[in-house]
Amino acid sequence: MEFTKSTALVSPRHPSGKPAPPLPGAVLTALGEIWLDSHSCQAWFLQALHPQGPHCRWCGRALTSPAQAATWQALGRLRCPDCGRWCTPLTNTILSKSSLDPRRYVLLCLLALAGLDDRAIAQRLQVSAETIRRWRARWREAA
Ligand SMILES: [Zn+2]
Question: 139 C-alpha to center of ligand 1: Å?
Answer without folding.
Answer: 28
